[in-house]
Amino acid sequence: MHPAIFVTTGTDSKYGADYNPLPPLQGPNASYATYNYPSDPGATFVLTNKASEEAKVAAIKMLDYMFTEEGQIRAHFGEEGVDWRRPQEGDVANEESAEPILAAIPGKEGDPPRNSAWGSMAQYFQPKEFRDGWVQEKDIYSSQGYERRLQEATNLYEGKEPEEVFPHWAIWIDPAVADETAMMKTNIKDYIDQNALQFVTGSKDLDKDWDAYVKGLDNLNLKRYLEIMQAAYDATKQGE
After folding, report:
1. Per-residue DSSP letters for 106-164?
2. pTM score, two decimals?
3. Do residues 127 and 44 both lie within one domain?
């Protein structure tokens, strides 16, 4: 959950501390939360046929380095002593039971950009153990405590996700139906998002309008979309 999508967070924010995550709703049998894979499929590192052999080797060596903890820190955070520092006495990791690994050194207001790291563009290898070790302030509503705020929100949902999750990030859609699938996916998602807002705000009633909502999904070729996704899943499983 990212409150920063909706409100400004940080020490100077007027409303940042007014927004907090809700734990999964408790139903008659159990609490339940959906699961969203944290990464989207797609190429983030490409070598073209225009690259020389020397350039290819150098690029692959750089990528290999970024899959080490040292390389990930250098690429994501920047220079030691400038952009980040080693843990000090009293530092608390993002996950409080974890061993602190590093602490970011925030820039001062008015300072020019450091431009010494790629930041989120360099997130090639950040397992949970790595992010757990980032030092964060105890105040989750401060700018330097934001990762802890996200961590605590995540912990509310951990263990409540379904046991079986459709691996949309790993399946390969047949190119012959890729355009058709993309169009249906866009229309279905927009329809769900719009109706979710209407149900939440009360402009639609769950008891009176639910059947019409489901019929609307049928009109958007939901059955065909599910057939394509099932075929892609089956093909992926056969190729394993």
Report:
1. PPPTTPPP-----GGGG-S---HHHHHTBB--S-TTSGGGHHHHHHHHHHHHTT-S-S-
2. 0.72
3. yes
